[in-house]
Design goal:
Layout: E1 3-5, E2 12-14, E3 19-20, E4 25-27, E5 34-36, E6 41-42, E7 47-49, E8 51-53, E9 67-69, E10 72-74, E11 79-80, E12 85-86, E13 91-92, E14 97-98, E15 103-104, E16 114-117, E17 122-126
Parallel strand pairs: 1-4, 2-5, 3-6, 4-7, 5-10, 6-11, 7-12, 10-13, 11-14, 12-15, 14-16
Antiparallel strand pairs: 8-9, 16-17
Length: about 130
């Protein structure tokens, strides 16, 4: 079972022949959709969230500081291993591999066909 929060065609776009493993969690928003390209394989327990809490003011409750929302883009023919977290604003190009237990953030600049692992994310090789 995968839990998809706030889904409709305006929030989460899933291409043809996408496989999503069990126990994942996808949260998207109208102003920050999530797009998953065709032929992508997503392992179990993967979390994607196009929303982040603002937290900059110590004298104000975090829940009262609003949110930052940025879209997530996952290309075609991508493999995302189990227990990967993909945060708001992340862009994963076509043909990439993201190893299990990795963290993808908006600060990561990935190249097409790269194989990445870890937190922080590190390029270990490229697909040929």
């Amino acid at each position: 079972m995968i839990e998809i929060v706030k889904i409709n065609e305006d929030y989460i776009l899933i291409g043809e022949d996408v496989a999503i493993g069990e126990f994942g969690h996808i949260t998207a928003h109208l102003e920050a959709p999530i797009a998953i390209g065709k032929n992508t394989v997503i392992g179990p327990f993967v979390m994607m969230n196009s929303n982040n809490h603002n937290y900059g003011y110590i004298n104000k409750l975090i829940r009262d500081q609003g949110h930052t929302r940025l879209p997530i883009s996952i290309g075609e023919d991508v493999w995302i291993g189990g227990r990967v977290s993909i945060l708001y604003g992340s862009i994963i190009p076509n043909k990439c591999v993201i190893g299990a237990n990795s963290l993808v953030t908006r600060h990561d600049v990935l190249e097409r066909g790269g194989v990445y692992v870890g937190s922080p994310l590190k390029l270990i090789t490229c697909r040929r």
